[in-house]
Amino acid sequence: MSSHYRGRIAPTPTGYLHLGHARTFWIAMERAVEAGGTLVYRDEDLDPERCKPEFAAAAMEDLRWFGCDWQEGPDLGGPSGPYRQSERHSLFLHAWERLKNAGYIYPCDKSRKDVARAAQAPHADEEASEVIYPEHWRPPLGHGRAASQPGPTNWRFRVPDERTIQFDDVRLGPCAFECLRDFGDFLVWRKDGVPAYELAVVVDDAAMEISEVVRGEDLLISTARQLLLYEALGLKPPEFYHTPLLCDTSGQRLAKRNRSLTLRELREAGHQPESLRQSEDWWSGLDD
Fold first, then answer.
1. Structural domains in the chain, sorted by start
2. What is the rounded CA–CA span in Å between residue 41 and residue 50?
């Protein structure tokens, strides 16, 4: 890693952060410090229905308590602002237009439920397999190119046929995902006017000149999708470092939807960050 290293932590303020978030963000901070680089804090508050200002404020407060430090962000400013995704809509719209004009994306009136009913998972023996968007639902090439705005419809990226997306993860080594088998045509813009996660993070990581993305290994397949977007937009992708997921005593990964114990609750219960970072749970799954 070089002195030009730029990393980022990017919480989504849909709830309070738990210890799994803290471990991933701590690793991101350690890697930035080790490289003598810069760590960027980005508030991924795109979804107006689920993201709340109180959770955004709590995330920064809780991570500061935990010992995380960053050099750019909503609270500090910096050369790559604004640092809230909700304030960066024009960048996402420009990327949508470029993809649309080049024929990479198309409007889609199918809902997630429609796709789930019509498609089958690529690996029936894997519980977490992704449902693949049916190829016969694709419109002809160029469909939607005349649109001047996304409008009240979903837009999907047309995943190429017979291609394998390969990349070297800094921690995991070589990774490969087969197009239209491991993942299919994916959302880049939602019918409620919100850019999808895949598009937003690609646009922002490129604009903020992020050199390495540190995140959980549950997002490995998102990396394959995002590499297609980097290619389509003519952008240089960062390096990727996917961390192991933190699980509870039952083996279930920590998640907001599972009501995992939050940093805020741990703090109120009298736990100290140093002791949490020395716990057996903290070290579970880490190579060293």
1. 1-87+244-288 (3.40.50.620), 88-203+222-235 (3.40.50.620)
2. 20
How far is Cα 67 from Cα 59, in angstroms, rounded to an integer? 12
Q: What letter represents residue 157's amino acid? A: F
pTM of the model: 0.91
49, 25 Cβ separation under 8 angstroms? no
Run means of pLDDT, 10 residues per run, the chain, 288 residues: 83 95 97 98 97 98 98 98 98 98 96 82 51 94 96 98 97 97 97 97 98 96 98 98 80 55 93 92 67
Name beta bridge partners: 167. Answer: 175
